[in-house]
């Protein structure tokens, strides 16, 4: 596995954005684009549910912003969204927290909203390191001690709960994943990481904490199929981000339209992904400072070569 992950992200073709045109959206005399291009990385929700939600969201945003909206589902993880923002092929995107840090540094992205509690503004989810229930590895100490004999799956090179926190933890234990595992790989989404583990194709895997429950709900696996060896601290919520160079009033309008979804369109809010959010969470205004602690963690991980010093 290469440590210069940003090189991998920046080489993903933009055409991976399914249906995305290669031309820029034509701007209006006010500087506001005439088409809003919104990209999503693969989610953990059912594909049919995601399609229904995105169709509903497209109509909602078009009605609220009085603008045509084009929605794109990517096929190569967060890297495609980041590269699309950098190349001005998309305007708004949904990313993981670590993906936002990369997009902020490399693609001129800023936070619009995060999902969190209305009173505290906090959300949070966690990443884990897991092995199959039948694995002879019983503890995280045993995994570290026997890493040379083991294969390991990360999720996505821009994933917070499926890459960054696990890599930071391994570093804290003196383990270099690039050298100290028999083999490492990227599954590119959390479900694939979990299913690869259940299928016995790797010895251990990174994923978000909710994956065993999600797979059980879909009758793809049972929580008892997994043994969780390590759980990260709580992480900031995934943000919706926007290109920094768009007109300020247009960015405020997009932000307000998103924040208003729970009140203005309860049906759409019911469709919103429920993974890693509490029943009382809403969309709230985000800001870069929410990610300072995570940014410090990323800068402290050796050989990551993602964020500018």
Describe this protein with a few key phrases.
309 residues; alpha/beta; D-Maltodextrin-Binding Protein, domain 2; 2 domains; five-stranded mixed sheet; disordered N terminus
Architecture overview:
With 309 residues, the chain is of the alpha/beta class. It starts with a helix and ends in a 9-residue tail after the last helix. It has two domains: 5-122 and 236-300, Periplasmic binding protein-like II (D-Maltodextrin-Binding Protein, domain 2, 3-Layer(aba) Sandwich), CATH 3.40.190.10; 127-231, D-Maltodextrin-Binding Protein, domain 2 (3-Layer(aba) Sandwich), CATH 3.40.190. The relative contact order is 0.19. Helix 2 links the parallel strand 1 and strand 2 (68-73). The chain has a six-stranded mixed sheet, with helices on both faces. It has a five-stranded mixed sheet with strand order 7-6-8-5-9. The chain is built from 13 helices and eleven strands. The protein is globular and about 60 Å long.
Shape: globular
CATH topology description of the largest domain: D-Maltodextrin-Binding Protein, domain 2
- Output the CATH homologous superfamily of the largest domain: Periplasmic binding protein-like II
Radius of gyration: 19 Å
Strand numbers in spatial order across the main sheet: 2-1-3-10-4-11
CATH class of the largest domain, named Alpha Beta
CATH architecture of the largest domain: 3-Layer(aba) Sandwich
Tally of separate helices: 13
Spans where pLDDT lies below 50 across 5 or more residues: 1-24
Class by helix and strand content? alpha/beta
**For the residues shown, what is the average pLDDT?**
87
Element order: H for helix, E for strand: HEHEHEHEEHEHHEHEHEEHHHEH
């Amino acid at each position: 596995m290469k440590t210069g992950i940003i090189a991998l992200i920046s080489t993903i073709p933009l055409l991976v954005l399914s249906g995305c045109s290669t031309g820029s959206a034509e701007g209006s005399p006010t500087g506001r684009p005439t088409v809003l291009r919104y990209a999503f990385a693969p989610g953990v929700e059912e594909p049919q549910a995601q399609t229904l939600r995105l169709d509903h969201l497209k109509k909602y945003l078009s009605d609220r912003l009085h603008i045509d909206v084009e929605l794109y589902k990517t096929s190569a993880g967060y890297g495609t969204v980041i590269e699309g923002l950098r190349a001005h092929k998309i305007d708004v995107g949904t990313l993981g927290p670590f993906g936002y840090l990369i997009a902020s540094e490399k693609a001129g992205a800023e936070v619009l909203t995060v999902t969190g509690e209305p009173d505290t503004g906090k959300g949070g989810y966690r990443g884990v390191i897991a092995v199959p229930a039948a694995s002879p590895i019983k503890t995280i100490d045993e995994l570290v001690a026997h890493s040379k004999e083991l294969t390991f799956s990360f999720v996505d090179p821009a994933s917070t709960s499926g890459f960054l926190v696990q890599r930071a933890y391994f570093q804290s234990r003196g383990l270099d994943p690039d050298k100290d595992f028999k083999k490492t790989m990227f599954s590119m989404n959390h479900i694939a990481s979990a299913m690869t583990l259940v299928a016995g194709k790797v010895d251990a895997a990174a994923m978000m904490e909710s994956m065993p429950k999600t797979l059980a709900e879909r009758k793809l696996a049972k929580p008892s199929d997994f043994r969780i060896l390590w759980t990260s601290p709580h992480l900031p919520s995934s943000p919706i981000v926007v290109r920094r160079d768009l007109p300020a009033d247009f960015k405020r309008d997009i932000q307000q339209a998103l924040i208003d979804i729970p009140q203005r369109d309860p049906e759409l809010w019911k469709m919103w992904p429920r993974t890693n959010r509490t029943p009382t969470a809403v969309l709230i205004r985000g800001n870069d400072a929410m990610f300072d602690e995570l940014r410090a963690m990323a800068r402290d991980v050796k050989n990551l070569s993602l964020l500018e010093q």
